[in-house]
C-alpha cells in the first residue's frame, strides 16, 4: 500500500514565471506533494522515454496567480489579508486543463487537489506565479508523493488476562494503567478486561508493585488490525483492494516463474 | 569573629530569619531584561561607542598642536573631533547616505567621515575651519552612529537588515569583519611570579606614550632592578638612592623594618656601600653608565649628560605609569619599595606568588580600544607628515600664503584603518606591537556561528606551545567565560567564549574616585613616612595600579564605595576589594574587566523580591531600574572573589552570603546554551556540540534571500527545536533555527549503522527532510584602464556553420550575462567578459582603435549543475562595473552527508531505506532516522535521552518542553505526561520490523530529537581521477580536489608495498602513473644526451633510451647546473 499501489501526483512543473521568494525547485517539490483527486485506475503509466503525455496517462493543470495591493483596503488594518490580494497561494487555485477528450471522461469535481487549503506559497505585491503542472501516475517506491496513503500500518491485537482478582483502589489504578475503555470495574469493585482491543500497550502496569503480578500482557499472533489512512484520491477500502490485487499478481508471477523454471529444468533433464 | 558571633546571637533571637527563604518565581526574566542593555555583543558596541564619542576626542586633544621649526609663528591646533554618520563618497565633495546592506552588496566599506575643527595660521592670519575631513572611520553596525541603531523591526526590514542581527562587526570592502576580543595580562599591576627558580616582581607599565616592563628580581640573594633600557641589573639600593632616598634607614623604612626584611636587605645595602654610592648624583651617574648603547644617537641625546639621561629614564620610562612631577620620585620610590617587599614576602611564603592565569589579572581588549590604538598611531603619523610638509614649504616664497588645509590628505588614516581591519594585522611601531589575526571574517554559516563569533575571546599566548596552565579552566572564570565553548586541538583553552551575562567594562574617569577616596579617609602617601605607610594597622589603597594613599579603616572605605556604587553616584562598574595578605585595598575603574550582575543579599535576604519580579513581568521595571534601586550590582572577577555568592536561594546563609546568582544557566555561553539538559551530559560532549553548532545549516537571518555571499547554506524547512532552553529563546535561535526535529528510533538496523552512521527514511527525505540550499556567487568587475580601454561583455557567440548559439553560451542573455532561472552546467559561461590586450601603454594616436580583445569568461565549475538565482549589476568604490551572480543548488540528503544531534553526536548517513522497510510502532509511526544504541554507553549523553523523552511528551501535549541547564522540565513530569497519553512511561514502544513484519523482540526507545545538518556534504568532497592536469615543472599530477588532482600514494603506503615486495606495482604507481619520461643517456659517460647524441663524448655510439621519472631528469639537470655531475651507469638487464 505504501509503495506499490499507484496514484497520481504532479511530476513536472513548467515554470513560465516565478518571481515569488520561493525557489523554483522548492516550489516544484511542494507542488508534487499535493495529493491529487484522480482515480489512478483510470490512467496508465507513462511509457519510459515518452516526452509528451497523452490523455490516457497525463493530467495537466495550471497555476497562475499574481499578488497585488488591495485597492479597497480598510484604513487601519495591517493584516496581510486586508493589504494585499492573493498574498497566499492555496492548492484550490490550481486549475485543471483537460487534454484530449478528458473533459468528457472525467468530471470536473473528480480531478484536482484533494484539499483546497494547502498553502503553496506566500507572496507580496509584484510576485507572480505562472506555472504549468503535469501529473502522472507513479508508485511510492519511486517517490513518497505517489503513495496513496498517509500511512498504512497494522498492529497485533493485544490480549490482557488478569491472573487474580483486583479490587478496590488497585482496580482503579489498574484502570488508569491502560487506555480508556480497556479495563472495566464491575459493581463489586473488581476489575475485568472490557475490551483489550483499545489498549495502546504502554506496559505501564508493570511499574506498580501491587498489581504487577495480576496482569499478563500478550498479543494474538495471527490477529492483525490494519489501519489505512488514505490521502484522499481513493477510499481506504479501495486502496486495500488494489493492494490485494497487486499481491495476487505478484504471487501469480512467482508461480508462473516457478512453473516455467520447473518446465525448463525438466526439459534440460530430458536432454541430458 | 567576635562581631559575627554577636550578630549570630542577635539573629537567633529574631524569629523568621531561621526560616528558609522562599525562592523567587521567574527570576530568569531578569536575564532577557539584562540582554536588552548589556551582554552578548553589547560590549563590542559599548566599547566602540566610547571610542568614537569620547576617546577619539581625547586622542585628538592629547596631540592637539602642531608647530613648525621653520616658522615659529605657525601652528595648527585641533579644537574638536567628530565621527559622522555613514555615507559614501560619490565624486568630489558629494556624499550619499548608505546602509550596511548596500555596502555588503556593492563591496564597499561601511564608514563615516572623521572631521575636525581646526585653528591655524595662514599667512599672518589666524583661521578657524570647522568640519575638516581627516579620514574615514569604519563603523560598527548598531553603534551609536550607525543607521540601524534604535530602529524598529519594520524600519530594519526597509533597510534590508535582519532584526535579529546582533551587529558589532564592520563591513570592509563588502566583507563582514569582526574584531575579536583580545585577552591579555592586566597593565600597571604588580605580578609576583617564579621564573627559573628565582622570584621576581614584574610590572608592565602602559601609558599613552610608553609601554615598558620593569622587574625586581632576586640575584645571588640580592635584589636588583631590571629594565630593558638598561644593559645591566641595577642594585635596588642604588635605584632608591637615584630616586633621592639616600639614607639607608629611609630605604629600609619604606620596604619594611621587621627582622626578616632587614636581614634580607643587608647584602643589598652592603653592595651599595661597596660601590661607593652615597648620593643621588652618584647613583644617577652609575645608572647613566649602564645604558644600552643607542643605535641612532640623536642630537638631543648627545646634548644630555648621562646623569640627566638617567634621571629622565627614572622619571618617564621605569614604572612609567607612576607619574613624577618636578622630579619628585617619592611616590615612585614607595612603589618600588612595595615591589621589593612583595618579592621578600613571596620568598618567605610561596603562597604569595601570584597566579598568572588568575582571571582577575586579565584584561580584555575590545574593538574600541584596539581601534583607538590604531587611530592614535595613524593620527600621529598624519600630524608628523603635516609638520614635514609645513617645514618644507613654508621657507619657500610663494604667491599664495601657505594653507595647511590643502595638504591634509584623508587617505592615510582611511587606508590605515581599512587595511588594519581587513587584514587583521595590528602593527604599531611606537609600542613595538605586531599582532596578526586580530580580525576575522564573520562566519555566516548559521546564525549561531555569527553570534558565537561575537563572544569569542582570543588569547595572546602562542598556540603551538604545549603549556597546560593558560589552557585549563580557571575557577576564577566562573560565570564569566563559558566552561564548554572552546575549540579542540591547538586553540583549546586559549580561545574562549563569554558567558551569557558577562559584560566588559569601559574606562571610567579616575578623578571622582580619588576625590571620593580622599573624603572617605584615604591619606595622601606623599605626606607620610615609611614607618607610617608600613604600619600593620594601615591599608594601602591602589587605584588602577597606582598608589592612592593609606587608610586606617579599610572596611569603612569599602563600605562607602559599595554604598555609593549601589546608589549610582559612582559608575556601577567600579570595583573595590581588599587583599588582606598584602594589606591593600584595590579600586578599579579601568576598561576591559569582566563583570557580571548579581542580586544583592542583605541580612540573609535577597533584596529582589517577588514584587519586583512581578513588576518586571508587567513591564513596569527594567534591568536598569534594578541597578538604580540598588537591588542588583555588577561584580568583577576580583570583587567576586571577595564576596560570598549563593547559587540558589536555599544556599543563602544569613551570616556570610552577600550576593545571589540571578540564574545558574547564565554561566554557559551562547553556543553551549543550545544544548538541552547539558548538566546531564559528559562535559566534552557539550564542547563538541559547541563546535558543531557553528557548522549546522539553517537560517542565517531574515535578510538571507537578499544577500549575495560567497557561500551560504540554508535549510529548506528549518524547525524550531521541540526541546528548547531559555538561552535559545534569549538568543532568538528559535526564530532563526538550524535543524529539524527527526523522529529517532534507537535501534540497530542492517549493519549500515556502525560507527555512528545513521539510517534515513526515504519517504522523509522525499517529503523534504534535510533538504538544503547551497548558494555560491560568481563575480567580476569591468575595469577601465589607464590607456582609455576597458573590459567589455559580449553577447552569446554563434556557431559559424549552423548559426546556433554554442553550448557554452547557451544560458547567456543577449547582454552576455547569464539569465536568472537558468540551469548552469559545468564549464558553461556565466559572464562573457573580454579584456583588452594592453592595459598600460597608451595607444598611439594614429593607431586604429580596433584592438583584439582577449576572452576572459567567468565560467561555472562543478560536477553538479546549479541554478542562477539572481544577477546584480552595480558599481564598486572605484566606479567600475560590478557584476555578481548568485548561484543556487538544492541538495537532498544522500549517503555520506553529515548530521548531528545537539549532544556532540555526529554521524554520517549510512543507508537510505524505503519507508516500507523501516520499522513502525503500534500507531504506525515510522522513524525518520535510526540511530545505533552503541552511541550511548561510551559517550554518556544522558541529555539526549532526556531530550527524546521531553520531545515526545511535548508532541503529545502540543507544547515545547524546556531543557535549560540546571533546570528545565523534570524527567519524572515528562514521563508522567507520556503515561497520560498512553505511551510507555520509559519512552519505549513495541516496534514491528519493516522487513519481516514481525514484532521486534526488544522495546524500542523512540521519539523526536533535534538534528542539525552539518555543512560537510559528500557532493563537496567527492573526487576521483584517471587522467588529468599535471604540474608544469615536475610533470607530476596536481594535488588536491580543487585542481582535479591525483590521489597520493604516500610514504607509508610506499613502505607497505616495499615490505610486500610488490616492486612492479610500485614502479607503476610512482613512475608510469605519474611522470614517466623517456630520455637518452650516454652509456659511456653516464650523462644526459640529447637527441641520441652525447655532446660530451661527441658520439652516439653508447646512447640508450632510458625511462625515468621526469623529476629525476630534472634533478640531474639542476645538479649539472650547479657543477655537480650525476652519472648513470647503464647495464643491460636482459
Automatic annotation (TrEMBL), chain A:
Keywords, in A-Z order: DNA-directed RNA polymerase, Nucleus, Transcription
Domain (DNA-directed RNA polymerase RpoA/D/Rpb3-type) ranges: 1-257
Main location: nucleus
One Pfam family of this chain: RNA_pol_A_bac
Signal sequence coordinates: none
Presence of keyword Coiled coil: no
A GO BP entry: DNA-templated transcription
CC terms in the record's Gene Ontology section: RNA polymerase I complex; RNA polymerase III complex
CDD domains, per database record: RNAP_I_II_AC40
InterPro entries: DNA-dir_RNA_pol_insert, DNA-dir_RNA_pol_RpoA/D/Rpb3, RBP11-like, RNAPI/III_AC40, RNApol_insert_sf, Rpo3/RPB3_RNA_Pol_subunit
Gene Ontology MF terms: DNA-directed RNA polymerase activity; protein dimerization activity
Entry's localization field: Nucleus
Tree of life domain: Eukaryota
Family from the record: Belongs to the archaeal Rpo3/eukaryotic RPB3 RNA polymerase subunit family.
Protein's name in the database: DNA-directed RNA polymerases I and III subunit RPAC1
Organism: Leptosia nina
Organism taxonomic ancestry: Eukaryota, Metazoa, Ecdysozoa, Arthropoda, Hexapoda
Automatic annotation (TrEMBL), chain B:
Subcellular location: Cytoplasm, Cytosol; Nucleus
Catalytic activity, reaction form: RNA(n) + a ribonucleoside 5'-triphosphate = RNA(n+1) + diphosphate
EC number annotated for this UniProt entry: 2.7.7.6
Cofactor: Mg(2+)
Family assignment from sequence similarity: Belongs to the RNA polymerase beta chain family.
Lineage: Eukaryota, Metazoa, Ecdysozoa, Arthropoda, Hexapoda
Keyword Transferase appears in the UniProt entry: yes
Keywords: Antiviral defense, Cytoplasm, DNA-directed RNA polymerase, Immunity, Innate immunity, Magnesium, Metal-binding, Nucleotidyltransferase, Nucleus, Transcription, Transferase, Zinc
Transmembrane regions listed in the UniProt entry: none
Domain annotation DNA-directed RNA polymerase subunit 2 hybrid-binding: ranges: 671-1043
Complex formation: Component of the RNA polymerase III (Pol III) complex consisting of 17 subunits: a ten-subunit catalytic core composed of POLR3A/RPC1, POLR3B/RPC2, POLR1C/RPAC1, POLR1D/RPAC2, POLR3K/RPC10, POLR2E/RPABC1, POLR2F/RPABC2, POLR2H/RPABC3, POLR2K/RPABC4 and POLR2L/RPABC5; a mobile stalk composed of two subunits POLR3H/RPC8 and CRCP/RPC9, protruding from the core and functioning primarily in transcription initiation; and additional subunits homologous to general transcription factors of the RNA polymerase II machinery, POLR3C/RPC3-POLR3F/RPC6-POLR3G/RPC7 heterotrimer required for transcription initiation and POLR3D/RPC4-POLR3E/RPC5 heterodimer involved in both transcription initiation and termination.
GO molecular function, one term: ribonucleoside binding
Domain called RNA polymerase Rpb2: residue spans: 194-365, 440-504, 541-602, 623-653, 1045-1130
GO cellular component terms, A-Z: cytosol; DNA-directed RNA polymerase complex; nucleus
GO biological process: one example: defense response to virus
Function text: DNA-dependent RNA polymerase catalyzes the transcription of DNA into RNA using the four ribonucleoside triphosphates as substrates.
Protein name from the UniProt record: DNA-directed RNA polymerase subunit beta
Domain spans labelled RNA polymerase beta subunit protrusion: 39-399
Organism: Leptosia nina
Xref: InterPro entries: DNA-dir_RNA_pol_su2, DNA-dir_RNAP_su2_dom, DNA-dir_RNAP_su2_hyb_sf, RNA_pol_bsu_CS, RNA_pol_bsu_protrusion, RNA_pol_Rpb2_2, RNA_pol_Rpb2_3, RNA_pol_Rpb2_4
